[in-house]
Design a protein that fits this description.
Layout (H helix, E strand, L loop, with lengths): L1 E3 L6 E3 L3 E7 L6 E7 L7 E10 L2 H8 L15 E7 L14 E3 L3 E2 L6 H4 L10 E2 L11 E5 L4 E4 L21 H12 L6 E5 L3 H12 L3 E6 L2 H10 L4 E4 L6 H8 L5 E6 L4 H7 L3 E9 L11 H6 L3 E4 L5 H14 L15 H9 L9 E3 L2
Parallel strand pairs: 12-13, 12-15, 13-14, 15-16, 16-17
Antiparallel strand pairs: 1-2, 3-4, 5-6, 5-10, 5-18, 6-7, 7-11, 8-9
Helix pairs in contact: 3-4, 3-9
Length: 370
């Protein structure tokens, strides 16, 4: 099968089959299979995946703890790809064959409801998510909703390998843009001191963004190796090994001129992380919700009221916000850490095992398809 882009000189040979990692049931390992290359319909672009990163949410989805009705599924929602086919219905969005693109995981929103018409399509009732309700990125080819896609580079080239900072782009389109939404919603003052609880994938990105904006940052975790990785990558930040400091507020004050924090980004999904956050906040402080525990967390109404505290939610935003995040990262050369290994699709189960055991200090594990 061949495809021509808007530039008639661009012709791409598209195979009939592709390799894909398939999770057939809850809590099962993935199996790499040869399956048909999807045919794009509606406003969906056909893309050739260049890099796909593993996110903790992928593990949660495949565990079956948040539902089982979408199995079997192709996981993955954090990637960069090259456009290889642009159906007629997708042409209004202006993408061309050879474009390098990323996207939030959202797709198939209606564009007609109040949320969609007010640029908040992440609240559309028809919304689907790649790697959950729609096939994800751990495959050689997939489809991307043109209305959700973000242009990274025009005419990048279908067969051009990712090099340099481009190899660190894929985590931006989940971890990066989620933290970005936290920053947008938090509305921090330039002089605010900020804590980050949990410095795995999300936490390391939060530390990078906050440091680049000039905030005093204190990174906290129970894993010393992740704190060490943070200080090596982001010199100048303060760190606290929570396991060694039972009086966490006192230790924060020692590192912050006798003051508590103006904001705390909770990037861990552990209940204990949320239990620790509120006592670290100064009056009018904000707790930014990024990590997602499977069970509800308790919050002290007295503490909230007495200190006029706020809880601020953040989530994967839409394409407009993702484009701003990408521009911010490129302008300041802030890119997520990516693991030094060139993981292949056949390594996905090993990647999942490493993440499950907390071995994330070396950066985001990413499958490269080049």
């Amino acid at each position: 099968m061949t495809s021509q882009g808007q530039d008639s000189a661009v012709e791409v040979v598209i195979p009939s089959t592709m390799k894909a990692a398939v999770c057939k049931e809850a809590a099962a390992t993935c199996v790499v299979e040869n399956i048909p290359v999807p045919k794009p319909t509606g406003r969906h672009l056909l893309v050739k995946v260049k890099a796909a990163s593993l996110c903790q949410t992928d593990l949660t989805v495949m565990s079956g703890n948040v539902g089982t009705h979408w199995f079997p599924l192709i996981p993955g929602h954090e990637a960069v790809s090259v456009v290889v086919q642009v159906p007629e219905e997708a042409t209004p969005w202006g993408f061309q064959v050879g474009d390098l693109v990323g996207a939030p995981l959202w797709c198939d929103f209606c564009l007609d409801c109040w949320s969609c018409k007010t640029d908040q399509y992440e609240y559309c009732v028809n919304l689907k998510a790649k790697g959950v309700h729609a096939p994800g990125y751990f495959s050689e080819y997939t489809t991307v909703d043109a209305a959700s896609a973000v242009l990274i580079s025009r005419k990048f080239g279908v067969d051009t390998p990712l090099q340099g900072s481009d190899r660190r782009l894929s985590p931006i389109f989940c971890a990066g843009i989620t933290v970005w939404d936290g920053l947008v919603q938090a509305k921090l003052a330039f002089t605010d001191s900020v804590g980050v609880i949990g410095v795995g994938g999300l936490g390391q990105v939060a530390t990078a963004y906050l440091t680049s904006l000039g905030h005093k940052v204190i990174a906290m975790d129970v894993e010393e190796k992740q704190l060490t990785a943070c200080t090596e990558y982001y010199p100048g930040i303060e760190t606290i090994d929570i396991s060694k400091h039972p009086d966490l507020p006192a230790r924060v004050k020692e590192l912050n001129g006798g003051n508590l924090l103006n904001a705390v980004f909770v990037t861990s999904g552990a209940k204990a992380a949320y239990d620790s956050a509120l006592p670290l906040l100064a009056p009018y402080g904000k707790m930014i919700v990024l990590g997602l525990p499977l069970k509800p967390v308790e919050i002290s109404a007295h503490m909230m009221s007495d200190n006029r505290l706020s809880v601020v939610g953040a989530r994967v935003p839409n394409a407009a916000s993702a484009a701003k995040c990408l521009e911010f990262c490129q302008r300041l050369s802030i890119y997520p850490r990516v693991h030094h290994r060139n993981f292949k699709l056949e390594d996905l189960n090993e990647m999942m095992a490493l993440m499950s055991s907390g071995q994330v200090d070396e950066g985001r594990m990413t499958v490269f398809f080049d």
